[in-house]
Specification:
Elements (H helix, E strand, L loop, with lengths): L1 H26 L8 H9 L3 H6 L1 H35 L4 H20 L22 H14 L5 H14 L2 H24 L1 H13 L1 H21 L1 H12 L8
């Protein structure tokens, strides 16, 4: 019984790694990365020049970014709770659910890799919430709106993690996955807010290589879809336990 519990715990680790990587790739997506500096400046109520040169301005931006990340994390945690509860409700149809989810995720992956293009995935849908910049509460509301409304750009990658959460069929485990997705998306916002002058070169390089980043996202989605269909998460967990015995203490 103890061994079975350990395997179940280890099974979550590959999904956590994928969830956090997916959050990072969401940050690097073409409709997020280019708008990060002006978005942060707006939330902090400062100009781009002040964010570049003024430490006090960057502290205000960092505070706003923290509330922004808190806002988007609130939505993602609620989604994780809801989708894992949904998976628990339809546990008897789990095999069919994983097959359908895997196929859909692989289609999204093929879109990002460039095998074909799905028109609605190249459009952005944003929520207009008016002037909410310059305050912590405004930044929190912007975070909520970002998580709800920045679609369908985040949709394919986020949908993959929601599928993983539903496949866990356990509310706590599914919520954990969305928490790590939120970390992968939110931590880069905080890093840019805190170290903007030093990271401008890195962000410029990322923008120039956006096509490669998008193809990497597609490859990740395609691989996750294949793993959902073939049930390879359990096999990966066994391999990780054999390669890294210390993981037996995970959880």
């Amino acid at each position: 019984m103890l061994e079975a519990d350990l395997i179940l715990d280890a099974t979550l680790l590959p999904a956590i790694i994928i969830a956090m990587s997916a959050g990072l790739l969401s940050f690097l997506s073409p409709c997020v990365l280019p708008i990060v500096p002006p978005y942060l400046a707006y939330m902090g109520g400062v100009s781009m020049g002040e964010m570049d040169e003024d430490r006090a301005a960057r502290r205000r931006v960092l505070l706003a970014a923290a509330f922004f990340v808190l806002g988007l994390s609130t939505v993602f945690l609620l989604l994780g709770f809801a989708f894992s509860a949904l998976g628990r409700t339809f546990l008897q149809f789990q095999d069919w659910f994983l097959l359908i989810a895997g196929i859909v995720v692989m289609i999204f992956g093929a879109h990002f890799v460039g095998v074909f293009r799905i028109g609605f995935l190249d459009r952005e849908a944003r929520v207009d919430i008016g002037d909410k910049g310059g305050s912590a509460m405004g930044a929190y509301i912007l975070g909520l709106a970002f998580a709800f409304g920045w679609t369908p750009c985040l949709g394919p990658i986020l949908g993959t993690i929601l599928g993983l959460a539903a496949s866990e069929a356990d509310v706590a485990r599914g919520t954990v996955l969305l928490a790590f997705y939120a970390l992968g998306l939110g931590i880069p916002f905080l890093l840019v807010a805190a170290f903007f002058p030093r990271l401008k070169g890195v962000m410029g390089w990322m923008k120039r290589h956006m096509g490669r980043i998008e193809r990497t996202s597609g490859l990740l989605l395609w691989t996750v879809g294949l793993m959902l269909i073939t049930g390879q998460f359990a096999a990966m967990s066994y391999w990780m336990l054999e390669a890294f015995p210390a993981l037996a203490n995970f959880g």
